[in-house]
Amino acid sequence: MAVELAEQAPETIVIKPLAMTIGAEVSGVDLSKPLPGQQVGELRAAFLRWKVLFFRNQPLDHAQQVAFSRQFGECTPAHAVYGHQDDAFPEVYSIDRDRRNKRYKGEDLLHPWSGWHADITPAINPPAISILRGDKMPPYGGDTQFSDMVAAYNALSPNMKEIVDGLRGIHRYQGNAGVNVSKEYVETLNKNLIISEHPLVRVHPETGEKALYVSPSFLETIVGFTPTESEAMLAMLKTHAARPDFNVRFKWDDHALAMWDNRQVLHLGPKDIVASEFDREIHRTTLMGDIPVGPDGRQSTPIEGNPIKPVN
Ligand code: SIN
Fold first, then answer.
1. 79, 100, 119, 204: which one is catalytic?
2. For ligand 1, is residue 282 a contact (CB within 6 Å)?
3. Whose CA is nearest to atom 4 of ligand 1?
4. What phi and psi, each to the nearest 5 degrees, are found at residue 245?
5. Is 269 close to ligand 1, i.e. is its CB under 6 Å away?
6. Domain residue limits, the chain
7. Among 81, 82, 95, 268, which residue has the most ligand 1 atoms within 8 Å of its CB, making it the best to mutate?
8. Catalytic: 284?
């Protein structure tokens, strides 16, 4: 695939890769208006190749973010477990550093951002794409990291690839609560339980590439393994998936936007922000994804919860 690199004419979309296999910063595009079909095509090609795209100076409101998102697929509801905050925008999930304490009055909630994960992998049809708009970001810190799961798979030995190609795992949504959590928060989790069995290696539906499908915050056990085997194998795979050589790190500023492919990328929200004096307000939309398929052609199987449905 031809990639337009930074030296090309400024009026065309400019794609500036940030790491060898993951992450590119895009300029020369205004996301607040409908994009010409050709630009949508160029962005989609760059997105599949670089797995996460970053845009700066895009002061969008909710309506513009939803409109931008819809050019790349159908929007899912804001969050499969927590729902939405603004009835006018059921597609938009807003996150700030006090979000759980504000919504659930929790006494001991750990922090608003999970560990390494791909979005909502406990669903049978997890969102394919996530689009995150940074509205009010700290002057420093509060970075988001991304990890390339195709590179992670490719870095395994041939023997380990053969083993993981045939494995499946159980993904469960269990929140990221502390010890003395509010009753309301626990009830929300229990009412919206979602659990699925997915292959440990996913064949990307658009590129055909194999990606390690290990979503550390949600992947609990490996099917057919003893608890000891499962724990040891998952410890190895989760550490491997987050290895710095597969990562790109994004330094935000106000009105930046990140768009990533949950089918081939993990992400990690910041922890440093919680103890800081700074706000950090972001708004996420997610786009419908399909049911994962493993290298053996087998689809994932649902265990609890309903498939995600698009917002019309
Ligand atoms: C997320 O985990 O979906 C958000 C990541 C971030 O806030 O940087």
1. 119
2. yes
3. 269
4. -70, -5
5. yes
6. 14-304
7. 95
8. yes
Give residue 176's pLDDT: 60
HSE-CB for 57 with a 13 A CA cutoff: 5
Tally Cβ neighbours within 10 Å of residue 89: 20
Query: For residue 82, what pLDDT is reported?
Result: 86
Number of H helices, E strands in the chain: 7, 16
Say which residue, 150 or 10, is predicted with more confidence.
Answer: 150
Domain 14-304 annotated CATH 3.30.43.10: no
Ligand 1 centroid to residue 95 C-alpha, Å: 8
Contact 81, 194 (CB under 8 A): yes
CB 108 within 8 A of CB 101: no
**Which residues contact residue 9 at a Cβ distance below 8 angstroms, ignoring those fewer than 6 apart?**
none
Phi, psi of 182 (to 5 degrees): -70, 155
User: What global pTM score does this model have?
Assistant: 0.92
User: What's the one-letter identity of residue 2?
Assistant: A
Mean pLDDT of 71-96: 93
From residue 304, give the alpha-carbon distance in Å to each of 11, 172, 195, 226: 49, 9, 5, 22
Which of these is catalytic: 202, 263, 267, 283?
267
Residue with tokens 């041939």: 158
